[in-house]
Amino acid sequence: MIRSELLQALAKDSPGMRSEEIERVVDVFFDEIAKRLADGGRVELRGFGAFSTRERDARKGRNPRTGDSVEVPGKRVPYFKPGKDMRLRLNAE
After folding, report:
1. Do the beta carbons of residue 44 and residue 50 sit within 8 Å?
2. 3-class secondary structure for 15-28?
3. By three-state DSSP, how is residue 30 classified?
4. Alpha carbon of 15 to those of 1, 10, 11, 82: distances in Å?
5. Neighbouring residues of 92: CB distance < 8 A, sequence distance ≥ 6
6. Is residue 75 within 8 Å of residue 38, measured between CB atoms?
7. Where do the structural domains in the chain lie, given as residue ranges?
8. What is the pLDDT along the chain (93 residues), one digit of tens a residue?
9. CATH: 3.40.50.720, 4.10.520.10, 1.10.287.90, 3.40.50.150. Which one for 39-57+74-93?
10. What are phi and psi of 37, to 5 degrees?
């Protein structure tokens, strides 16, 4: 699902809201998650999962074009851990 499909699904389920309002709600939702993660926090949505960040150590990489060895700095990367309800839905038979 892409962002526009999400907006269409929300519009279909919320006939009383204008499309601009729905788009604003989605923007605020994703912005707040991104802000919390950027501040080093965690976002937990019960039944869905938890967003957090993990540290990646610095390492030696390779430039695929030249084959030269390059230093890749350490960084934080987003991480998602699905909740129990989500895992059950994904593995239902």
Report:
1. yes
2. CCCCHHHHHHHHHH
3. helix
4. 21, 9, 6, 30
5. none
6. no
7. 39-57+74-93
8. 999 999 999 999 999 999 999 999 999 999 999 999 999 999 999 989 999 999 999 999 999 999 999 999 999 999 999 999 999 999 987
9. 4.10.520.10
10. -65, -40
